[in-house]
Amino acid sequence: xxxxxxxxxxxxxxxxxxxxxxxxxxxxxxxxxxxxxxxxxxxxxxxxxxxxxxxxxxxxxxxxxxxxxxxxxxxxxxxxxxxxxxxxxxxxxxxxxxxxxxxxxxxxxxxxxxxxxxxxxxxxxxxxxxxxxxxxxxxxxxxxxxxxxxxxxxxxxxxxxxxxxxxxxxxxxxxxxxxxxxxxx
Length: 185
Hints:
The strands form 2 sheets. Strands 2-3-4-5-6 form a 5-stranded mixed beta sheet. It has a two-stranded antiparallel ribbon with strand order 1-7. It has helices at about 105-110, 130-140, 175-180; strands at about 15, 25-30, 45-60, 60-75, 85-95, 115, 125. The protein folds into 2 domains: about 15-150, no CATH class; about 150-185, no CATH class. By secondary structure, it is mostly beta strands. The chain has 3 helices and 7 strands; from the N terminus they run E-E-E-E-E-H-E-E-H-H.
């Protein structure tokens, strides 16, 4: 069932409705389709739903948010090119200020990336870009099917994890033959 904005209409699945958050400590859970974060670009993709848990400490018009995003990322092993999946965890920290600030306070808060200033009457905040950024920062550079992956034979392309290939062990690339005869003193 779609959530409704306080004024009516749909609320994005990545939004927090600020007036629904009580003073003190509270917790929120979101389950997101990876498509909501528009992350299907590059060599890795998110599979299944993303679970986001928030711990929110509200004091008047200040919201201190600590979150943890859990999901699965899929791609190819960097050595043998077999499909592989691994867990992904991404932290999120944010301080929301929903009140009028003086010029000096606004300038100081504006310099901190983890502080977001909201209009005094703001009813909700969409965390889509914050969640997207958190996931992108935690994506692996490379994925491996296992730590000791042997990769592919450079001559025939056989997956060496499944056994030895038919290539001759002593066979070498003829392009390097001139270096073999080189004598160093």
